Amino acid sequence: MRIMKLRPLQRGQQRGLTLVELMVGITIGLIITAGASMMAVNQIGEHRRITIEVQIQQDLRLIADMVAQQIRRAGFRGWSELGVWVPELAGGAPTPAIESTNNPFDALSESDDGKTLTFVYETNPVLGKTRSDMTSYADDVNDADHGGFKIEDGELKIQLGRGNWQPISDKSSYRFDSARSSFKISTQSQSLEEFCDLPCNGLADCPPQQDVRTVTVTLVATSVLLQDVTRTVQIVERVRSDKIVGVCAKS
């Protein structure tokens, strides 16, 4: 009886993977997959963050432009001719001099905490008319002429008429920080004494003063979804209609 010896298989004759090789391969694959997943999650999170930052920044710019436009309207008088003195006109039927009147729309104020800015301006101006045409013109402030802004409950609100406050920000996306957001009015007064013909000689409210007013608006908003995303916008806008206080001596 012949006894046959079994030879071990040569390396080139092996087929398939051993258990150890399979486990090593699976481990390497899991490491690669985990790394790729982390990169994908980080990229998605960064993209989300950038989207939120851009949205807040764009909204703040639009709001800042709206605030600046409204501040420029503050003090607008529909019929500015009423603020100019008209001299006496001689002739067959002499016309007496017409005194100038103060601008009733020059009110501009901020609240004590700096969270509210209010002003007035003529919302229904009369254009292309002269003083003689407008004998019945009502040069006064009505409810529709009131404007302003205020920060309340994380929102920025605009006043469209007396007491009619409407939100112009989306507090579901971002909220304004009332501690760091504010409205501040700066006033620089300049004497107009050189434009008066007569000395004051102790006359009250003489000489007149020209108040040049500037409003500094600081708005700080924080994302609702990402609390560490905060953006700030600041504008400095001069009120175009300067306030005149006082009068010149008449005689």
Keywords:
single chain, 251 residues, alpha+beta, 1 helix, rod-shaped
In short:
With 251 residues, the protein is α+β, with helices and mostly antiparallel strands.
How does this structure look, described?
There is one protein chain. 22% of the residues lie in helices and 25% in strands. The protein is of the alpha+beta class and 251 residues long. It has one domain. Strands 1-2-3-4-5 form a five-stranded antiparallel beta sheet, covered by helices on one side. Strands 6, 7, 8, 9 and 10 form a five-stranded antiparallel beta sheet that branches.
Rg from alpha-carbon coordinates: 37 Å
Structural class: alpha+beta
The helix/strand order is HEEEEEEEEEE
Shape: rod-shaped
Count of domain modules:
1
Specify the helix fraction band.
Answer: 10-25%
Strand order of the largest sheet: 1-2-3-4-5
DSSP strand tally: 10
User: What characterizes the major β-sheet?
Assistant: 5 strands, antiparallel
Instruction: Please state roughly what percent of the residues sit in beta strands, choosing from under 5%, 5-15%, 15-25%, 25-35%, 35-45% or over 45%.
Output: 25-35%
Distance between the termini: 152 Å
Tally of separate helices: 1
Low-confidence parts lasting 5 or more residues at pLDDT below 50? none
> What average pLDDT do the residues reach?
83
